[in-house]
User: What shape does this take?
Amino acid sequence: MSLYAVQKFLYRLNRDPDAQAAYRADRRASTSSFDLTDEEREALVEPDIGLLFHLGVNGQILMHFAALHHIEWAAYLRLMREGIETHGPVREGVYAVTGYEGVDAHAASLGHRTTRSEERKQDHECP
Amino acid sequence: MPLIFAGVCSHAPGITGRRLLADPDVRDDFYAAFDDLRTALEAARPDAVVVIAAEHFANFFMDNMPSFAIGMADHYEGPIEDSDWLAIDKTVVPGNRDLSQRFITEVMKGSDVSYAEEWRFDHGIMVPLHFLTPRYDLPVIPVNINCQGPPLTPLHRAWAFGESIRAAADALPERLAVIGTGGISHWPATPDSGKINEPWDRDFLDRWARNDRDALLDYDDQQLYADAGQGGFEIRTFIAVSAAAGGAPGTVHFYAPIPIFAVGCTVATYDLAA
Assistant: This one.
C-alpha cells in the first residue's frame, strides 16, 4: 500500500454522497478505515492537491476531489505544478510510467514551444 | 434492425463547465456541430442510444476493473460531479433494462463483458447527453471501455468489441444508435491540461475517417502516452465505433483544439448507408 488506498478513498468520496457527508463532518475520522501512511492521510485531510498529485493520484480522480472542495480550475492546475516543484516527479501510477517531471519537460518532449512563463500567463488569464 | 447511426464526440468537462472561459466564436461553432449531431441522431429515429464511453472512476475501480462493461438498468443518475463545476444539473437518465439485457446477451456471443445494474454517469456520458438528448428522453445503454486504469483494454480487443456491438445491434428488432466519446490527444486533469497535439489528432482522425483498421490499431500505448497523453488512451472508444460501423467511411464535421476545454474538440459520424 498505499497509492491504491488513497485512490480508493477518493473514488468512494467522489461518487458517494454518504462518504462526502462523513468527510465533511470529520475528515480525519472518515479516513480511519483506510490503510494510509501519515503523509497520505494528512494530504487527504488538508487537502494537499499538489502532494496527492506527486504521490501519483490519477488526475481523473484528483480533479473530482478538487471540484468537491470548490477549487477553481486554474488554482487546481497551479497546485499540481507546485506539488511537483516542491516534492519532485510523480512517484508512481500512470504519470510515473514515463516520468512526469512537469510542464516544461512535457512541452519539450512534444516539441512544443510553450514555456513555463507562458503557462503562468495562461494560468493568470483564467479567473 | 441494422445499426442506424454511428458517431463520435468529445466529452471533456470543460466543454460545459468552463464554457464562459472559451473563445466564444470557436466554442459556438463547436456547439453548433453538437447541435447538428443531435439533429442527425434524431432524424435516425433511434429507440435507444448506446454510448461507448471511457468513464473516469465513477463506477469502476482497480478493485475489480472490467475491460468492457455495459449498463443494465431502467435509469441512471448523473452527473457524479458537483453540478456547478460541470454546469449540468443532477438528473435521472432513462435506460431500458430489458433492452440492455437482450443487447448484452448478444454482445456476449462475441466479447466477454461485465454488466452493471447500477451506474452513475460522470462527465464522460453527461456532457454528450447534455447536447445530444438535452431533455433526457431517449433511453441510454451505457458502455465502458477501460481507458483509465492500466493494464488497459488492448486496441484490437476494442475493435473486436465494436464488432460485437454491431452484431448485437443488427440482431435486435430495436433501432439502435452508437455514440462513442473520448479524447483524442489530451492531458486531462494534469498540470499539462490544455495541451493538445493537433498534428497527432488530425492524423488519427484521418485514419478514423478512412476507417482503416490496421492504421487505427497501429499504436503502442507507451508511445501513445508520450504523444497524446493519458487522455489519448480514450481512442479505444473511437476505435470501437469504427468497428461497429463495419468499414463505412466517416466524416469529421468539426475539429478544433480548444485549450480551455483541455481537448481537441471533435464531432464526426460514419455514413452507414455508404
In short: Chain A has nine helices and no strands. Chain A touches chain B at residues 4, 7-8, 11, 14-15, 53, 58-64, 67-68, 70, 73, 77, 80-81, 84, 94-95, 97-98, 100, 102-103, 106-107, 109-110, 112, 114, 122, 126-127 (CB under 8 Å). Chain A has a mean pLDDT of 83.
